[in-house]
Amino acid sequence: MDSKLSDIGRYRIEGELGSGAMADVYRAYDTEIHRVVAIKVLKEANRQDDEYYSRFLTEAKAAGILTHPHIVTVYDVGVFEDKPYIVMELVEGETLSKRLEKGEKFSIREIIDIFRQLTDALYYAHQNGIVHRDIKPDNILFSSDGGAVKLADFGTAHREGGQDAEKTQIGMLLGTPRYMSPEQAAGERLDGRSDLFSLGVVLYELLTGEKAFKSPTVATLIVQITSEQPELLNKLPAEVPRGVKHLLSRLLEKDPAKRPPSGKEVIDVLNWELEALIAEQDRKQQKFLPLYVKWTLMIGTIITVILALCLTVVLSLQTDALTEYAVDSGSSLAKFIATESAIPVLGEDWITLESLVNDASKRNTFQSLLVMDHEGVVRAATDPKMIGQPQPISESAQIVRRQQQLEVSSELLADGDIVFNFSTPILFKNTEVGSISLGLHQAALEQIKQVTAGLVLMVGLVIVVSVVVLLFIFGRVYVGQLRVLRRAMQDFKSGSLDRRISSRRKDEIGELFQLYNGMADLIQERLHLGSDGRQGEATSRQNAVPESDTDHFNAINSNEAESADEVERVEDDSTQVWSGEADEDADRTALFTGIDVSDQVAAAPEEVAVDQHQPQKKTEASVAENSDSDEQANKGEALIPDKMVEDDDDDATRLWQVPPEDPESKKEEGSKG
């Protein structure tokens, strides 16, 4: 590095920033534009090489066309006293290599974000026909806040298709060998895919903490780059997303045709992986149930309970209605059979009675039928074994209805069937001659109940599922909008004061967005006003009256206050503008606030003298009418005492001493008053 490097033209050298194999870098100040810059000056040894000399200037000028937020801007290129130089934007942050040397670790999210910015910068450069050719940690700079990154040192860059595009040879390697692409190491023609390989080497180093190619010599290093894969490529940490692993393996392909064709594809993959990673981290950090899930569970539970209650009520009402219908139908049938059996029972014509019962049982209309005589002995039955037996009594029967001359009971049979038993007397001219017991199946009734319950349950389930799905979808949509607001507020909190939400929703969410935008505008405006106010305060402190002058100023105020009190005692209401302490203070405030007293008095001493004597004139006119001390006033003496004028402080004397007045002009002024 040139130890005695003088200023370069309008750039004042302020110090050394670093040195590389090709050039030295200095911190400098642009005396015309008034900004701090970085100047790269070609090393003295390289100035003797015409190839280095011309390449340094030509390719720096080519890189100068690039303007991108993640590329260090080239301001100027030139030669001063046979010293080629490049003037660049000065980035105050550290390089990636320094942060790695300190052992700093980056999270997967930070790594993806860093490489997303770098790839965007490279894609822009490649679109403009510029290949960097020296991607390495030393050329990746962080901003002072550590968030944004910038790609530096396009001094070895070249235009694709330029005259020197095929001149790179092994004997003249441009770039850092450890991060070169195979085609660059072999001296072949380069395009943007060479930079993508070098970017992959840096990405590998960040993900694994190890160099991709570790050979200590250049020769063996080139062999590794052109023919060997990094040993940890298939053993990346488990937290690395699969998409990033696949992208890294493609970037490190030896054949450029197998790499991503451009940075655009790499950016798309990184954006996808970053969004997925952010969403996954948000889910892991979220210690509460999402609002849309709460809404769904709550509303779904409420609807389910309501539908269950409704289903229970409906089925209960249906069961009662069907039971009532079955009981009425069975009662009518039992009474009809009792009426038809009255004559055979009265005549004890058991054969005819059995024939009637057998015919009825063949129709399979009922489950059982028993006809008993007046002594309770079974005389006809659907089950022949029951004939001649006393009427059976069931202990499991439950009375459903009991009316005059009719009793209905429900019984559970051994086979699981449920029947209604109808018992009614056989009457002949209102005389009981026997009784019958009719059993009707409830299977059909239960089947109707089950079908109805199934249909109602299905309808309820469809309603619940539909409502839950709709609530989930709409809830997620609205929560997504709230997440937009939350991310905007997080960005604003982190310092992105220009972050605004551009959504134009016309609902409550839209009102929240507008409130946020208005709040952000107001806070940003107040911050700017506060900054301006602080600058104004500093200016006012610079223009403050010196302490010695302030002492005299206070003394004069005291004397003026005494004179004002005397005037107040003798003047009438019309002269109250001059009376009282408050008016005197207001007058002094209007006279002196915001005025540089020394400048005003020096510029217009006569005006100050007139201002000082205005109250004195009114004093003289009033005292002349009310006292015998007119002589001193008529002599035109100043309001300020002599001892103030004769003060030892010369500055105060210059400020406040009143020049002598002409007596004639004083009389004219008195008459005007």
List keywords for this structure.
alpha+beta, 52% helix, six-stranded antiparallel sheet, 673 residues, single chain, Beta-Lactamase, 5 domains, 22 helices, Phosphorylase Kinase, domain 1, five-stranded antiparallel sheet, disordered C terminus, Transferase(Phosphotransferase), domain 1
Strand content: 5-15%
Strand elements, count:
15
As residue ranges, the low-confidence spans are 163-172, 541-661, 663-673
Structural category is alpha+beta
Domains, number: 5
CATH architecture of the largest domain: Orthogonal Bundle
**Whole-angstrom Rg:** 53 Å
Distance between the termini: 82 Å
Report on this structure:
The chain is of the alpha+beta class. The protein has 5 domains: 1-90, Phosphorylase Kinase, domain 1 (2-Layer Sandwich), CATH 3.30.200; 95-285, Transferase(Phosphotransferase), domain 1, CATH 1.10.510.10; 309-448, Beta-Lactamase, CATH 3.30.450.20; 497-538; 548-672, no CATH class. Helix content is 52%, strand content 14%. The protein has 22 helices and 15 strands. The chain has helices at 44-47, 50-63, 96-101, 108-127, 182-185, 192-208, 218-227, 242-251, 263-285, 291-340, 342-346, 350-362, 443-493, 508-542, 547-570, 581-592, 597-603, 605-626, 630-634, 642-645, 650-656, 663-672, and strands spanning 11-19, 23-30, 35-42, 74-80, 83-89, 130-131, 140-142, 149-151, 158-159, 368-373, 378-381, 398-403, 406-412, 418-428, 431-441.
